[in-house]
Amino acid sequence: MQNESGVKERIKKFIAYLNISEREFCRTIGVGSAYIASIKRSIKADKLEAITEQYPQLNPVWLMRGEGEMLLSVRPEADAMPKSAEIAPSEMLYKLLEDAKEEKARLLSIIESQQRTIEMLAEQNKKAAAQPESNAGCAAAV
Q: Class for domain 1-86, per CATH?
């Protein structure tokens, strides 16, 4: 159950940190006031983009996966860090989207496999339902 409401709970935690209402948060990202309550498992890429545009201090990896810190830290020594060591928010979003695409492909593969199994079992069931009538005489004769 934690996995199911993780993103929703992290959004609520961030809103509490901002000390604003859920309604205000929803307004700033351009969604209806019931949006947060409607979150089931995750949020769509367009909503994540709107959130990161309005709240650039929010770590999108933390929001989506619960990994790392809630806020992207801005440390004075970060300026001394080479740019190649930093990960831009757009790169994080790209990585999250790529992960989502891979997960979608994996889940579609599972669904297709299950559909083939269902079709095979339905065919076997159909054949089995037709057989008892022809075998009924054999069973009585034994």
A: mainly alpha
